[in-house]
Every structure is written in structure tokens, then in C-alpha cells.
């Protein structure tokens, strides 16, 4: 039986994830406590009723977690000469089930990255042993639970269960995106990841259609504008700074040299995106104005967080945004892999 949630996060943001899990567990009336170490890249929330807590905290609702798993076993002092035997023994102490996939992982941290080679090679050795013992399907089956084998050290292994319907579809919760040669800046990766992470497949098809119109506030040099254009939108890019010339040559971009916090469209738009370096509460208030006044139906924006009390500021800004919008919204937020000291928010009018 699972005794804890195991969640990956950005190294350095363990206190924020621990605070988020603790507050939401208390709200769900599930007792437990967060355990972590700064810069480890993960948080464990120990609870006698971890499955109930997992049900109460769907992955899509979590902001600072890259992945959510149920911990099955925590194995210390594993003999490097034979790691497979104790793993199989630990699984025998859990309810029998068939896993669809095996993921062998390590923390995305300075301390965890040296374990990458071990994780890759060990997966090749463990996979046939699991199949022989009846724990792993003969062929990958994405519909069944995943078995995560996590190396925290050469002799410290965590076994965890992942639900493909309630978690990230990528190992470590990290989508492997490549920087396109034509992208004006690396910030394009943030919006690409946001569209993959915060919208479902059907939503991307429905909400991002050729011929839609959008605005990019604080656009220069044009990374987010470039992503919208690649998705078929006509974009009004607002910034006093210059855009890359090939964006202007596309015929889909109008560049207005204006203040992104003061500009407003003459007619309602489908989309507004914003990645401006401003105080997060000021951004939240301005984004709320856009939704409240009906200037756009869908929005993606970043909130740059302070150095301290980042969970408190996140909660406050999202509450402020929702309250000042004065209309029913669907809101999702996540600290993305390509984010740094910020979170990315997607908001859409209900029924939009």
C-alpha cells in the first residue's frame, strides 16, 4: 500500500511544492507531512492515506509539481551488485498488478544528474526480470499504471506508481523540446511547453485554429509571436522594442510600438499572451482586465515570482486574477520546465 506522494519539481522550488501540498492536503482533510531537501528536485508527502490524497489533488491542479506518483517502497542500502532482487521483493509486498511501462528515473538536479547513466543501463536489465516475474506487460501498454524506479543514490531506490491519466506523459515531467532555428528567442519554448502542458489535445485543435487573431504583449524579440504564427494566428505584437524581420515578413504580424500594459484592442481577440517582466500582482490585475472586458477569450501569461514566499504570492495572484475577472473562467497554472523564477497561467472563458 502506498504511504506517500512522490512529486518531481524544479530544483530549488522544493519549499514551494511542500507548502502547496501541505496546504491542499489540509484543505482536503487528509493528514500527513511534507519531507524534502533543498535542491533535491523532489518532495515526498507522507500520509497513511496517500491514495485518498492523490485523488483529492489531481495532477492538473498542482502548480509546482512536474509529476505526481504514489510511492510504493523506499529502499535504502541496496547492494550495487544486485539491485533487482530487493526491487522484486519489495513489489511482492504490494498488491499484485500488471504495469504497462517501466520508467527508470533520477532527480533533475546537480546531485541527481550523475545517476543518468545508471538509470539508462539499469532499465535494460530490470525490464526482462519484471516481465519474467509477471509485473510488466510483454509490450508497452500506456493504458495500465506505470512502474517508476527512481534512483536517489546508487544504493537508494524508490519504487512508485504512476497513473497515465493523472500525471505527466514525460519522464521526470520534462517535455523534450528542441529550439527551432527560426525561433527569435528561447522564450518560444516556454509557450510551446505551455500549449502542450496546459491544454489537452482536443483543446489545442479547437482553440488554436488557422485565421484566429491574437495579441502578444511585450513581444520583442518575438518568441511568443512566432509560436502563435506557427499555429495559424494573425498576431498584433505590442512592444517598443524591435521584432525579428522574418516575423514581419510572414504577413501575419502587425507590430505596434506601444506599452503592453496600456494598449487595448479595438475589437475582441481570440488570444492574448504576455511574458512581461513586471510585478506579478500588476500582471494578474491587467490580465483580469483583459478577460473582464472581453478583449480576449483565451490567455496565457507568466507571473514572475519574488525570491521569498513564492507559494503565498502564487496563491494571492491567482485569487486576485480570478476575483477581478468578474466572470467564470477555467484557470490552470504550472511551473514549466522552461520557466525559471515564474509560473505560467492559462485562462479561458467557460464554454470558450
Automatic annotation (TrEMBL):
<keyword id="KW-0698">rRNA processing</keyword>
<keyword id="KW-0963">Cytoplasm</keyword>
<feature type="binding site">
    <location>
        <position position="239"/>
    </location>
    <ligand>
        <name>S-adenosyl-L-methionine</name>
    </ligand>
</feature>
<dbReference type="GO" id="GO:0006364">
    <property type="term" value="P:rRNA processing"/>
</dbReference>
<feature type="active site" description="Proton acceptor">
    <location>
        <position position="304"/>
    </location>
</feature>
<keyword id="KW-0949">S-adenosyl-L-methionine</keyword>
<feature type="domain" description="RlmM ferredoxin-like">
    <location>
        <begin position="4"/>
        <end position="69"/>
    </location>
</feature>
<dbReference type="InterPro" id="IPR011224">
    <property type="entry name" value="rRNA_MeTrfase_M"/>
</dbReference>
<feature type="domain" description="Ribosomal RNA large subunit methyltransferase M THUMP-like">
    <location>
        <begin position="82"/>
        <end position="160"/>
    </location>
</feature>
<dbReference type="Pfam" id="PF21239">
    <property type="entry name" value="RLMM_N"/>
</dbReference>
<dbReference type="GO" id="GO:0005737">
    <property type="term" value="C:cytoplasm"/>
</dbReference>
<comment type="similarity">
    <text>Belongs to the class I-like SAM-binding methyltransferase superfamily. RNA methyltransferase RlmE family. RlmM subfamily.</text>
</comment>
<comment type="function">
    <text>Catalyzes the 2'-O-methylation at nucleotide C2498 in 23S rRNA.</text>
</comment>
<protein>
    <recommendedName>
        <fullName>Ribosomal RNA large subunit methyltransferase M</fullName>
        <ecNumber>2.1.1.186</ecNumber>
    </recommendedName>
</protein>
<dbReference type="InterPro" id="IPR040739">
    <property type="entry name" value="RlmM_FDX"/>
</dbReference>
<comment type="subunit">
    <text>Monomer.</text>
</comment>
<dbReference type="GO" id="GO:0032259">
    <property type="term" value="P:methylation"/>
</dbReference>
<feature type="binding site">
    <location>
        <begin position="220"/>
        <end position="223"/>
    </location>
    <ligand>
        <name>S-adenosyl-L-methionine</name>
    </ligand>
</feature>
<keyword id="KW-0808">Transferase</keyword>
<feature type="binding site">
    <location>
        <position position="187"/>
    </location>
    <ligand>
        <name>S-adenosyl-L-methionine</name>
    </ligand>
</feature>
<feature type="domain" description="Ribosomal RNA methyltransferase FtsJ">
    <location>
        <begin position="185"/>
        <end position="278"/>
    </location>
</feature>
<dbReference type="InterPro" id="IPR002877">
    <property type="entry name" value="RNA_MeTrfase_FtsJ_dom"/>
</dbReference>
<dbReference type="InterPro" id="IPR029063">
    <property type="entry name" value="SAM-dependent_MTases_sf"/>
</dbReference>
<dbReference type="Pfam" id="PF18125">
    <property type="entry name" value="RlmM_FDX"/>
</dbReference>
<dbReference type="InterPro" id="IPR048646">
    <property type="entry name" value="RlmM_THUMP-like"/>
</dbReference>
<dbReference type="GO" id="GO:0008757">
    <property type="term" value="F:S-adenosylmethionine-dependent methyltransferase activity"/>
</dbReference>
<keyword id="KW-0489">Methyltransferase</keyword>
<feature type="binding site">
    <location>
        <position position="275"/>
    </location>
    <ligand>
        <name>S-adenosyl-L-methionine</name>
    </ligand>
</feature>
<feature type="binding site">
    <location>
        <position position="259"/>
    </location>
    <ligand>
        <name>S-adenosyl-L-methionine</name>
    </ligand>
</feature>
<dbReference type="Pfam" id="PF01728">
    <property type="entry name" value="FtsJ"/>
</dbReference>
